[in-house]
Write a structure and sequence with these properties.
The model is unreliable at 147-153 and 214-229 (pLDDT under 50). The strands form nine sheets. Strands 5-4-3-6-7-9-8-10-13 form a nine-stranded mixed sheet, with helices on both faces. The chain contains 27 helices and 33 strands. It is α+β, with helices and mostly antiparallel strands and 837 residues long.
Length: 837
Amino acid sequence: MLDKDTKQNINAARNILVGKTPDPKAQIDQITNALIYKFMDDMDRENESLGGKAQFLTGDLKEYSWKKLTSLTISGAKRWEIYTEALEKFAESEQIPELFRSIFKGAYLPFKDPETLRLFLKEIDKFSYDNSENLGNAFEYLLSVLGSQGDAGQFRTPRHIIDFIVEVINPQKNDSILDPACGTSGFLISSYKHICRENSSNYKKEEYIPTFAETKSADMAGVEIQKNGKYKAENLSPEQKKRLSKRIIGYDISPDMVKLSKVNLYLHGFSEPKIYEYDTLTSEERWEDSFNVILANPPFMSPTGGIRPHKKFQITAKRAELLFVDYIAEHLAINGKAGIIVPEGIIFKNENAYKALRKMLIKENYLYAVASLPAGIFKPYSGVKTSILFLDKQIAKNRDQILFVKILNDGFDLGAQRRRINKNDLPQAFKILQNWQQGKKTKSEPALFINKSKIAEDGDYNLTGDRYKTQVDYSKVKWDIVELGDVCEILDSKRKPIAKSKRKKGEYPYYGATGILDYVESYLFDEKLVLIGEDGAKWGVGDETAFIATGKYWVNNHAHVIRPNRKKILDKLLIELINNMDITPYITGVTVPKLNQKKLRAIKIPLPPLDVQRQIVSEIDGYQKIIDGARQIVENWKPIIKIDPNWETVKLGEVCSFVRGPFGGSLKKNIFKKRGYAVYEQSHAITGDFSAFRYFIDEQKFNEMIRFEVKPNDLIMSCSGTMGKLAIIPQETKKGIINQALLKLTTYNIFDVKFLKLFMESDIFQNNLLSNTGGAAIKNIASVKVLQRLKIPLPPLEVQRQIVSEIEKEEKIIENCKQLIEIHNHKIKKKIAEIWE
């Protein structure tokens, strides 16, 4: 994994360049050029220390040594001259290896500022070639800023998704491996690391636990294991390593991607990377080559008029995604296997070419599994919905069914920032796929096995797993399967809506599809019943579609009213069964999805004997009590600072400096750049998340607004609309300024910033703050002068830190309670799943 210092150095180098070179691709080019320059000199010094001779910067190139370039005795102008000349010479000199010459071809420095160059080279000087493993990870991190080449339909594949596919495919040391649209070689490097791990003496397969999400953001997430160390691949001989590096191959149509890919592989130990500038879809030169493993996230878009492929493809098409899947299938060796990320069109589109491709994959025994990914997997670059096709010619030949796996969560939320969350279906999906490779079937969600003959029935060969869910075989379930209508009475005729304007306030709950919406003066029902959302609800696994209503209450026409036959089924078991199954196959309507009464009656559920039901419900109730207790702690806890009357009281303006954000006219949208110095917004104060920024300014604008610069340990506060939310600027943060909706506070040495934040978040301070607001429609914080006069306690600094420490301990307990809730929710789901086994 990437260490903290290396990541900081990469970020520092980019921050120096950003004012002169705002384009991320150009920044990567400059950092790449400088790193290779430095590493050639490093390797020369290493050779000389071992008694050998320098091989790169010798002869005519000796005057461009890194030591001379970074010497403090030369002028800035001379340094700029040496560096720019060196870039030209390196591209032409025969003593420079061909790989490096190709990297320096056309290289130049896009600015003439000697001071910027000095600062940039100072950061590059912190890197050393003697740590190539960490450098490889650093370069992968650097490439992550590229993000998207969206115009070509290419989106950078998150590393944890790459690693998930590689783990499923399981490439071996004697395999030939291809990525026909390799980009920066993420799949190839992941495959190499996988093989190294499998051939390391400290690797124990039985202890290996893939998690596929070990970092705070999806950009650098990857497969990690418990009890792991650094894998050295000691069980691979030098000859085997050399042969492996020759059998890992990539194609890309873009010369820029080929260059970056070669550097990436070089920094991971490939002395001669086999990356070729090659048009996979229109060139025939390499058509006869076949491979044991093919991995790809090919482009999803085609140029205007489509691709003009040669005549060797089995499928007649002009769309890139179709042709790439065809290419991959046709270039698998006899024992070949593949993992391909595809857009949803491949899964269900009705055009002839799409149907023909799906038919080929099934009829000719390529496809054995489809994994559906969440729609936001490529955010913030695209919201495109994708799936993974898993091909294996041997497995598919010996299976009568296709496995469908629905991955709802990949360990990160689906917002633009892709923040880490606790829900991650990838490890479970991996185990399901691994079992299916061995011929074992997982008998619970999210696994679904469908006969190939069923998929072929209508000639569409549709690969949407949910389409076949109603065909689930219930014959293996140990309890009787009944329809809901057989064990429940539907009381929908008694419900009635009341328009909001006609509701009269009262004491009785007014229920809708999602729970209590209001309280009214009258009631319709006076008994314990079960309510299930008809429309306006969610019907997926884990959604609270069903709930119990008790006492006297009113129900509108958006919730079904059900009276269970309690001689057959218990209320509690019924709602747990409904809430832990996927009801979407019973949902009708597109514009307004709806669970109509006919479909409601047809929902199939297992029906254990009543005594077994009571045991199950008793166990679930035990888990629920723990959940409720932990949830009560989480919901009611808030940090409390007990004020000692002996503490000194001071004005806020006496313990910190204030800077209110600039006038809105200073930050008009027409001045924003794609990259540069960050503009901090209210969302950063509200969420405390500093991983992403929407707006940037250039160096000139930043210098004009230097008064508004944020620095580590500054406190920022939201000042408009959602007011009084606070966040501390972290140590590792992007250089930038606050916008007009923020207030920046910098504490003096007598105050601990964490203590100040805690006190300013307290009810005492917040109430005082809100009483000094202005604005009619949108509330605004009071003026700086008013805020500076607000009184706050000033305990001794040591006491402040002690209070912060105690509250942080409490916060850890709250986090443990949240984990407790998650664990016992999982136990409930597991118990319900047992009923279906």
